[in-house]
Design goal:
Blueprint: E1 14-19, H1 23-33, E2 38-43, H2 46-56, E3 62-66, E4 68-69, E5 72-73, H3 74-81, E6 89-94, H4 99-107, E7 112-115, H5 121-139, H6 149-153, H7 157-165
Parallel strand pairs: 1-2, 1-3, 3-6, 6-7
Antiparallel strand pairs: 4-5
Length: 169
């Protein structure tokens, strides 16, 4: 049996929200994330998922959502996540994914599509970890100064060294 180690940071567990009406999804992901640094929060409907996102937007770097829910679909959650200054990564899960769904998920801005029934633990952990890393990269401000080409052309050698060192010119 192969194992997959989860990269984590010091501090509290990393929260993952699962929005699914399927008991087997809840049980499977609870088993997969159990004993790891991932804390699984759950919602059974799109409306409950939306409430959880609105309450905990800053503490939810990753959301896993079933493709179809009794009261909506994953696009409702994506629209809500889009309102965040730094959007949490959305992973859509489906039992039967065709090329159309793959393209739609990626083109609309979800992080990835995860195939279920049953979930493969290594794949769940790999995709979740990648989604978490993408969220953290987006959340951290870049240390690289942003400037247009016209400004960059006017910087002298000493100015470039001062900029690289972090001091004003």
């Amino acid at each position: 049996m192969s194992t997959y180690s989860v990269v984590s940071v010091a501090g509290p567990p990393n929260a993952v929200l699962l929005v699914s009406a399927r008991t087997e999804d809840h049980d499977s992901l609870q088993s997969i994330f159990g004993g790891s640094r991932w804390e699984l929060q759950v919602a059974w409907t799109a409306s409950d998922g939306l409430k959880t996102i609105r309450r905990n937007r800053l503490e939810l770097p990753v959301v896993i959502c079933e493709e179809r829910l009794p009261d909506g679909d994953w696009k409702l959650l994506l629209a809500e996540l889009d309102k965040a200054a730094v959007r949490p990564s959305l992973i859509v899960c489906s039992r039967l994914a065709d090329e159309r769904l793959w393209a739609e998920v990626l083109n609309l801005g979800a992080f990835d599509l995860l195939l279920g029934a049953p979930f493969v633990p290594e794949e769940v952990l790999r995709v979740t970890q990648s989604a978490w890393l993408a969220f953290n990269r987006a959340a951290r401000p870049s240390s690289v100064p942003r400037m247009g080409p016209e400004v960059a052309r006017g910087i002298t050698g000493s100015g470039a060294r001062a900029l690289a060192a972090g001091s004003p010119n």
